[in-house]
Design goal:
The chain is α+β, with helices and mostly antiparallel strands. It is built from 13 helices and six strands.
Length: about 300
Amino acid sequence: MLPPEREVECPCAMPLQRPVGFDPRGWPWRVTACVRCGVVTVVEQIISEPRPHDTRCVGNRPLVLDPSVLAWLASWPRVAGRDSDWSAPVFLSASVKARREGALAVIEADERTAQTNLSRKERFFRAGVPSEPAPGPMISQLKHFMQVWEGLRLTETTPYEELLSHVGTHGFPFALPYLQQRPTFEADVAELLSSSDVVRRRIGADLAGHLDLATPAILDAIEKWLDERALDARDLHSALNLIAGLAQRAVKLAIPLERLAARIGDSDYFLKERVTDLVAQVKAPKTSPEASSRRKRRR
């Protein structure tokens, strides 16, 4: 097992380690490269929780993958910088090498400047991604590599249903621009929310929630969902999560929510409680930034 601070099986200085492909924070399965020697290792973090909610990495266990799959993962770009830089990642080519931290810092600074105005898709292609899909089965914990690989290959001519299949996956950011380009996009989302198919409703909820859509057509479709669909808690929570995000802009849904609470009755205490709380949330008066600021000053 490797110590917590080391994620690559090599003797090189640890500051020369860089994540491969993605921001790894919050993810116990990591692909990490050394930019000095080029070794790439896949590890699983071993987590200890000595007290509730006090989680600590106590070591990194290297995983053994098919060599061809590991080589495919190793061909993805490296994520530049430290963890504070990873939310809007800058990518380095898999071929980049640096013997010392100073040299790596110069390379990263140059790439940061070069990629300032590029989209994430353009940044990936600038650094280089595999030209072929993974050569063998990918462990489920690393399926996001394949999801992004597929997402990067979407174009304006990709069929609508194929674009929808990427919603809710790591390929979603690459499908979304093409979905939004459709002249019927708002009607498409409303149709998804109104669908009799639970999977399509959840896709609609993901789209509406991500884009913060609260148009009359969207609210009408959510109302239909609340009124006409079966009392399936998992399905309804998708609708409730969307409404919670819209907050007071979904005040039109207060009465449909009350009808839903009545339909639930005594069949599901916790679901009914959430619906009741949501009624209060959407009815709550909007607070202006000025009023909020005045309250803070009075405190």
